[in-house]
Every structure is written in structure tokens, then in C-alpha cells.
Specification:
about 140 residues, alpha+beta, six-stranded antiparallel sheet, elongated
């Protein structure tokens, strides 16, 4: 496996001011990697978006930070009380640390999250990856056959 990918969506956020704040998103993207024992290699980039042609209800704040282990990205929609967070890493991390930190900032009344294991066939060790893939394919062939 290459690494985990956390996808978090927060609904009906109590702190809409935080959703609209470039400072809040900047702070989150600056602090969260350290809490997860990851290394920032490029300072966070945070932008205010007015919604453009779509309309002001789709405006908000977008930010990302590149870490040695991959990246974090946040998109907020203050008018809708909604945000998304993605954390992708080649290094395992404690999902609960990320959830607790971000949920405390935006205070959603409801949230959904999923963790995907990406790169199941990523060849960290080619011989071991080949062995695993061959075993999985043989098991599938037995089920199908």
C-alpha cells in the first residue's frame, strides 16, 4: 500500500466565521501536519473565493499545504455551513488526530469521513508487491472460476 487518504465532509457548521476566515484555514494547515508528525515542505497557500459566476453562496476559502508525505487540502463554503478536508499521505497517520483538530475548528453538527488505502500495488518492494498481487489475483480467479 502507498498510503491512507482521509476524506472529511462537515455539515451545518456552527462556526461560520471560521469557515470564512483565511486566517483559520491558514492556521489549520500550518498546525495539523505537525500534530500528525508530518513535515511541511511548502508553506500553506490559502485563497478567498467569491463564488464567481456560480454565485456568492459557493464562495469560501480554499487552501492546501504540500508535505513531504503528500498533501492536505481544505475547501469551505460559509454560506452553506459546509467544508471538505482531504489528507493524503504515504505515511500512516492517526485519523482521530486530524478529525478532532478540524472538527474543533469548524464545529460541524454532522460529518462524514472515509479513509481509503491508496496504491495497493505500489511497489515499495517489487518482489513482495509481486507476491501479494499474484496471491490476490489467484484468489479472485478461484472465486470467478
Amino acid at each position: 500500500m502507498y498510503g491512507p487518504h482521509l476524506i472529511l465532509e462537515g455539515y451545518d457548521c456552527r462556526d461560520r466565521a471560521a469557515l470564512a476566515s483565511t486566517d483559520a484555514v491558514q492556521k489549520a494547515l500550518s498546525e495539523l501536519p505537525g500534530l500528525m508528525e508530518m513535515n511541511i515542505i511548502m508553506p500553506p497557500r490559502v485563497l478567498q473565493y467569491d463564488g464567481g459566476d456560480i454565485g456568492p453562496e459557493d464562495g469560501g476559502v480554499t487552501g492546501f499545504v504540500i508535505i513531504a508525505e503528500s498533501h492536505l487540502a481544505i475547501h469551505t463554503y460559509p454560506e452553506k455551513g459546509f467544508f471538505t478536508l482531504d489528507i493524503f499521505s504515504c505515511k500512516p497517520f492517526e485519523v482521530s488526530v486530524a478529525l478532532d483538530y478540524i472538527l474543533a475548528i469548524f464545529q460541524p453538527q454532522r460529518y462524514d469521513h472515509q479513509v481509503f488505502e491508496r496504491g495497493r500495488e505500489f511497489p515499495r518492494c517489487i518482489s513482495r508487491a509481486t507476491e501479494i498481487v499474484e496471491q490476490e489475483r489467484a484468489a479472485i480467479a478461484l472465486q470467478v472460476g
